[in-house]
Design a protein that fits this description.
alpha+beta; four-stranded antiparallel β-sheet; 5 helices
């Protein structure tokens, strides 16, 4: 196992990953920015660039009633946790990331409704998610990967965050309409 941290190379014998990851965790908790490359068994793992690669176990859309799902994705693989210095993965990690982002957005905009907060998170998601070496589809990631930095800068929200007309007959037999509400949260008119 060979680790490159901040341009310095470190070698660890097989099985010493836990000791290394304890050190990585200490650096993270100290506020260090970590540019890490891990080489093992001819495989290369890069952090944080791995964040935009969709995990193979990630759920996909559409929903059973043909709605666009998921709304967005969040980091759920290769997660450093405070309780376990080893990398962890699963929706049990990505869901709290989204909940935490929503809480921070609520703190920044206490007057916003839950729907506006959801809109800010979904509407600013990064569409640069990769699945199988190609750009992921909407049914894979929804709007894309959560980007809290961009969500905190939102001035306009939309409700609902996506429109879905279910499964259509070909051609559709009934005209369908959906209401879309845009809300300007700034003090200035927006066009």
């Amino acid at each position: 196992l060979k680790i490159h941290l901040q341009g310095k190379g470190y070698r660890f014998a097989f099985g010493e990953e836990r000791r290394l990851l304890v050190k990585l965790r200490a650096l993270l908790l100290a506020g260090s920015r970590i540019d890490t490359v891990i080489e093992r068994d001819d495989r290369l793992f890069r952090f944080p660039a791995q964040a935009d690669i969709l995990a193979s176990f990630s759920s996909r859309g559409p929903s059973l009633n043909h709605l666009i799902k998921p709304d967005l994705t969040a980091v759920g693989a290769g997660v450093y946790t405070s309780l376990n210095p080893l990398l962890s993965q699963g929706t049990s990690f990505s869901s709290p990331v989204v909940a935490g982002a929503a809480a921070l957005l609520r703190q920044a905009h206490p007057q916003w409704s839950a729907r506006s907060i959801k809109s800010a998170l979904v509407g600013t998601a990064s569409g640069d998610v990769i699945r199988g070496g190609k750009k992921a589809l909407m049914i894979d990631t929804g709007a894309g990967r959560l980007d809290l930095t961009r969500a905190l800068k939102v001035r306009t929200t939309v409700d609902p965050v996506s429109l879905s007309f279910g499964m259509w007959n070909n051609p559709p037999t009934v005209p369908q309409t959906e209401a879309l509400i845009l809300t300007n949260h700034s003090s200035q008119p927006l066009t």
